[in-house]
Amino acid sequence: MDADVIVVGAGLAGLVATAELAGAGKKVLLLDQEPETGLGGQAFWSFGGLFLVNSPEQRRMGVRDSVDLALQDWLGTAAFDRAVDDPAGEDFWARQWATAYVDFAHSEKRAWLHGLGVRWFPVVGWAERGGGLADGHGNSVPRFHIVWGTGPGLLAPFVRQVREAAARGLVELRFRHRVDGLSITDGVVDGVHGAVLEPSSAARGTASSRTEVGEFALRAQAVVVTSGGIGGNHDLVRASWPSRLGTAPKKMISGVPEHVDGRMLGIAEEAGGRVVNRDRMWHYTEGVRNWNPIWARHGIRILAGPSSMWFDAKGRRFPAPCFPGFDTLATLKAITASGHDHSWFVLTQKIIEKEFALSGSEQNPDLTNKDLRQLLARVRQRTAPAPVEAFKEHGADFVVADTLPELVAGMNKLTDEPLIDLAELEGQIVARDREIENPFTKDLQLTAVHGARRYRGDRLVRTAAPHKILDPENGPLIAVQLHVLTRKTLGGLQTDLSGRVLRADTTPFPGLYAAGEVAGFGGGGVHGYASLEGTFLGGCLFSGRQAGRAVALGL
């Protein structure tokens, strides 16, 4: 044997599993096809949001949460319906992972991370609010805890543990090692084989060479696959696209680099692993093209507060629950039903100043760099954050104008043919503005805005005071063309609660484990049909820890 365990994929789930294994004294080979600059995978680019339940941060903000409320929200959002009570069902293990994860988010998660040095921004965000019934989709209360240091800050303790274990000889990092197959002896996975790629100095996230300079074959007592999802492979995304979400957009932008291609998912399935829920996925509807791209088709998600008016490509306002930050997949379905691939935000300067944030560590230098002075300036200033202003100035999807006719003219210039009718758009905005006269309204979006401002965190940093969009004092007017942004795979390799990959007959595949997105973040689909946000990084943490500890105990 070349090691006790081989871990394939050096993203967050792989780092967590490796840290757990090394902590138990196991020798680990950590392989990744990308150069060392890519250590940490997609977590490095993330905003660093984590789903926690009944945390001190919530309580300080006046939020009352409980494990029962969180599980109600999770199950109402997941809508598990694929033979949940049948061990052969696609949702059998996913449902068990969901219960275990919510309990983890309520109990050990924060204390474990805090003990590793992780800290959080004190204002808890309220993402994916749902907008339906109490037992339906969405978070009933704010649960989005932003790591102080964003994605890099969350990665840091696990990178440190792995580096320290490498210095002790327990971990060997092998970059530019692309796994092409699993080795199986007498029905047991006992290694991997593949190609050694030429050295690369490609910057993190950029394309690296695929030139092969050698081959390798490695053996171990167990293999843990933590290779991520399919979001960078648009062909595979379209092939898996479910009819319930309409027709897949012809044009999409990418929230992940091209190397997030799903190769290991196919390799593990070909070897005998069971892939379930492959038609479940999570793509954002508020994507804008990055004016300063790092990877091909690079898009950034706008994390919008609840006030921007949202219109389809022809300028028709979306109904509830298709408001910013409320129900992502309902809005995605509404966009595909419109017959066009894009939609529009229409807002004011006052709204963009208070409500726009951009997802990603590189778009939030104050939080990422732990710069308290810069962060306080963001909260107090009367302009949008610098990265947002940069997009407003340079982004191809932003239109800024003093009057609505000028705004509509600019919007129509961004499409192949003029789709927005000035009179129709103006009528909808005027109708909305008339509702501002009173603190009560029949407009459900304005009702939601008033409700959001009752939460201290939203009133402080996230939700602008209600105002008339067409009042020049609140201008200039801003329109943002929004694109579908590929991001997360919600299905994957089915695993039991130990992270053991199951075969088609639902028995464990000896020697093979999986964690992170390739496993649907646990069980082949812990999120079910939809996500509550803050659960992707947390899913990597939990499933990586579960698999790492289970393998260590089993060897």
Q: Can you put this structure into words, describing what you see?
A:
- There is one protein chain.
- The chain has 18 helices and 20 strands.
- Helix 1 links the parallel strand 1 (3-8) and strand 2.
- The protein has 555 residues and is α+β, with helices and mostly antiparallel strands.
- It has helices at 12-23, 56-60, 67-78, 92-106, 108-115, 150-167, 234-240, 263-271, 328-337, 349-355, 365-368, 372-380, 386-394, 404-413, 422-434, 444-452, 456-461, 536-554, and strands at 3-8, 28-32, 49-51, 144-146, 171-175, 177-185, 188-197, 212-225, 253-254, 275-276, 281-289, 299-304, 309-312, 342-348, 356-358, 398-401, 477-489, 492-493, 500-502, 508-514.
- It folds into two domains: 3-227 and 490-554, FAD/NAD(P)-binding domain (3-Layer(bba) Sandwich), CATH 3.50.50; 283-367 and 379-485, Succinate dehydrogenase/fumarate reductase flavoprotein, catalytic domain (Flavocytochrome C3, Chain A, domain 1, Alpha-Beta Complex), CATH 3.90.700.
- It holds the Pfam family FAD_binding_2.
- This is FAD-dependent oxidoreductase 2 FAD-binding domain-containing protein.
- InterPro entries: FAD-dep_OxRdtase_2_FAD-bd, FAD/NAD-bd_sf, KsdD_DH, Succ_DH/fumarate_Rdtase_cat_sf.
- Keywords: Flavoprotein, Oxidoreductase.
